[in-house]
Specification:
54% of the residues lie in helices and 10% in strands. The longest helix is centred in the N-terminal third of the chain and has 22 residues. With 229 residues, the chain is mostly helical. The radius of gyration is 19 Å and the shape is globular. It has two domains: 147 residues, Ribonuclease III domain (Ribonuclease iii, N-terminal Endonuclease Domain, Chain A, Orthogonal Bundle); 66 residues, 2-Layer Sandwich (Double Stranded RNA Binding Domain). The protein has a three-stranded antiparallel beta sheet with strand order 1-2-3, with helices on one face. Helix 7 runs antiparallel to helix 8.
């Protein structure tokens, strides 16, 4: 495993409390499943720090974008796919403390583990150095205002975007119904319906279950009056 100092160089921040950095990089599989030894609590805090920083960034710089558009932009920036990409840029997987099971099954490159560890790292910076230091790191990964305004940012994770919209009403529940189409024996295809409280609000097809769900979510987002690309 590389020295943690090289990770500090990559993010441009040197920890005063090195144990806090180590905690942010410790997966529950390494700590024996004990929350007090893993990064799970830090992940919880990091998610809030990330959401607030990105919200302020968009609110301040995207003055002509309505609330719905800001919600969609924020969802695209803080979704698991984006966080995974941020983590990969700094080689975060190389620094993780993993249990043997996760180690041998590819945990260092697992999307969910890397995304969660990135959030935990942000929380560790926040606790060690304050909100300004955490914001510096977050904003170094966020697309520029010019890119956001030009529409060059990919907003393809419509499942996350839809979930972000629905979460504004906690009583609402989203689910997906996916089935394989049987009309082509050479190429598999799938159809998906996305349901809100049991009622279909979008449908889509794709060559994989994930692709079909994304297509259904995109239709639902569009039908709700939000722009899609």
């Amino acid at each position: 495993m590389p020295e943690l100092s090289s990770l500090e160089e990559k993010i441009g921040y040197s920890f005063r409390n090195k144990e806090l950095l180590k905690r942010a990089l410790t997966h529950s599989s390494y700590s024996g499943g004990k929350n007090n030894g893993s990064n799970e609590r830090l992940e919880f805090l990091g998610d809030s720090v990330l959401q607030m920083t990105v919200s302020m960034y968009l609110f301040t710089n995207m003055k002509t974008v309505p609330e719905g558009g800001l919600t969609k932009l924020r969802a695209s920036i803080v979704c698991e796919n984006s966080l995974y990409g941020f983590a990969k840029k700094i080689g975060l997987g190389e620094y993780l403390y993993l249990g043997k099971g996760e180690e041998v099954t590819g945990g260092r490159d697992r999307r969910s583990i890397l995304a969660d560890a990135f959030e935990a790292l942000l929380a560790a910076v926040y606790l060690d150095g304050g909100s300004d230091e955490a914001a510096k790191i977050i904003l170094s990964f966020v697309p520029s205002v010019e890119a956001l305004k030009s529409g060059k940012v990919s907003l393809g994770d419509y499942k996350t975007i839809l979930q972000e919209i629905i979460q504004q009403n906690p009583e609402e529940k989203i689910s997906y119904d996916v089935h394989e189409n049987g009309d082509n024996h050479h190429t598999k295809s799938f159809s998906a319906d996305v349901l809100l409280n049991g009622q279909i609000i979008g449908s889509g097809t794709g060559l994989s279950k994930k692709e079909a769900e994304q297509a259904a979510a995109k239709e639902a987002v569009k039908l709700m009056g939000y722009e899609t690309n």
